[in-house]
Amino acid sequence: MVKLKDVAIQVSAVAALLVSMSGCSALKETFASQLEVPTLEKQVNRVAVGMTIVRENNIMSNKMQISGDAKWPQLVACDLNETQEKAIKDILYKDPYYMTIHYSEPVQRQMLGGSAAMNQLNSSLGFDVGSIAGAVADPISPLTYRAVQKLEILYGPNSRNWPNPFNFDSSAKNFLSFKEGKLKMVEASKSDAYKTLSDALIALTPVNYQKDLKQAKNDLEKAEKSVVSLKGEEGELKTKLSQDEAKTAHPDKNPDYTPLSEQEKADINDQLNELTTKIAQAEADTDEKEAIYFTLLDDATTALKSDIQLSDEQVKLARNVHIISKEVENGASEAYSAFGVAVANIGAQPILQNFPTELESLARAAAMFPQFAEQFKIRIERLAKNAIYFLPNMGMGTYYAHKQSVLAGKYEDISEIIVEAADAKAEADKAAAEDAAKKEKEAAEKANS
Predict the structure, then answer these.
(1) Residue 35 in contact with residue 341, Cβ under 8 Å?
(2) In this predicted model, what pLDDT tens digit does every residue of 388-429 receive, in sequence order?
(3) How many angstroms separate the CA atoms of 327 and 350, rounded?
(4) Which residues pair with 62 in a beta bridge?
(5) Closest CA to 396 of 141, 177, 219
(6) With a threshold of 0.90, does the pTM exceed it?
């Protein structure tokens, strides 16, 4: 006989898991992944969200003009409200994936099973927690909500002008840019406007440092692109090996596939070993150029602190630089989390090996729900394409997210120092003026007496 206490414990356990899926932190993304069917599609979509955040960071840093009176920095830093959340749901539920996920989830849970953590919990509780959670959970992850919120701010309220986050390839050259979409025009500014976040920060430093800072920043960007290009090549080669492993594991589902020969696999592994060396060298070169740039920034900041001579407009600019730098740093951490969860799930589950079965599960769901046949077709075609590119993109995205975080953190610290020093100087000037006024008043009173 089931005891009421045992039922309460079971219900509490399920409730705790469901509650963990709400919220907006990157940590909730990890919890949410423990309730889901371990599919490649979910990991690919996480990579797409991570790429979206990295690209949004690039837009905020390099594509949106910034000035002291620009309003968009405050907008991207705002928390998501209920109205925005509902609008995002309405938009995303038009996408084939979100439109049909609740129909395919039960089929995939039956054919692919749950995650190792979920299976263990099911065994201990005696019922399928995952199926209950999957039936009521919001398939839109916290990180996805945040990424789409920024799309609305950067591209405007009309979602037809937005890029498609799920449309990607492995091009290192265009990694930081969306293929589609039309950025909003930044409203005219009364104060000086700068093309990039770096330009704005450098403009706040003493004039005699600015030329060297611009050159050092250009050198750093070139070095980073070299690393990303190599990581893209590495990801493409790893994709070849993983696809070969998955297809040869299911020859009945891939009758026309010709497996890689042992020599071909050996050649690919040799290329990977060479790339590992090249990547290490390129990363060392990038770190060296980053250190040069950061040293120049530190020297310029020290010189600036010793004699703050900034106008009110420049102080306003520094405040906006601080807001955007903090937002980019937070976004980079979120993107890093998205990539990390995808990597962890693929490493812990036979997701790549089960890919043929996953495609079959989508085909079966399409047959069961013919009213969504077109949506399932799009999902299958998109997944088959993105499966080829997600490993290179994950490698490039992880590297860019790390570099964005480091650079934005540096800008955040420097802009904060500038703002605090300017505020301190303003306070000192105010105190000096008040003291002078007081003395003048006392002198006048003494003269009159």
Answers:
(1) no
(2) 888 888 888 999 999 999 999 999 998 988 888 777 777 877
(3) 35
(4) none
(5) 177
(6) no
